[in-house]
Amino acid sequence: MAIPVEIISKVIEQTAKVVDEQVEAQLSKLNEMDDDDLERLKERRLEALKKAQKQKQEWLSKGHGEYREISSEKDFFDEVKDSKNVVCHFYRNSTFRCKILDKHLALLAKKHVETKFIKLNVEKAPFLTERLRIKVIPTLALLLDGKTKDYVVGFTDLGNTDEFSTEMLEWRLGCADVINYSGNLMEPPTGSQKSGSKITKVEKKSIRGRGYDSDSEDD
Length: 219
Hints:
Layout: H1 5-32, H2 35-61, E1 67-69, H3 73-82, E2 85-91, H4 96-111, E3 116-121, H5 126-131, E4 136-137, E5 139-144, E6 147-153, H6 166-175, E7 213-214
Parallel strand pairs: 1-3, 2-3, 4-7
Antiparallel strand pairs: 2-5, 5-6
């Protein structure tokens, strides 16, 4: 049964009236503020900006804001100990998909200064890769407060395509709370993968194979 146009119009009119009243209430509240109230509000906002800037400078001093290569397992533990949020790309020079990840991680490192982005050659870190059970290359280890919370193994979580977008990887990192993500975590970004590619459910997975299995078809 169709709803009469008059009823629909009435509902829209009432909704608009409520919104107008809410806006009017906010404006009235601002108008009622005296100079001292406005000054206090200004001081609070300025203090918040100063605090945010100080935090950003602290992150930058610890190597955030850029995608860097570290040279040893010792460096890995030092870097992780020094920052709350860390994304570490375990890579191998001969694996083509590692170079694809490099491009996206370099962009995200500049955007998400709250997180440290580093890379480590698995051939220089045999103990660490064994300890973290890293068998598939590339693998991203996602760490919070010095502990490994999640892994992105190969490109399965990114649509199983080499042509995933930076936004898709950003969403995946947001699902692990390793970056401050402002989008919708319930759905991956649209238009991020090839037609016919499949976005798999984000979940912990067992890591397969012996030695270092490559997730790159070109390897």
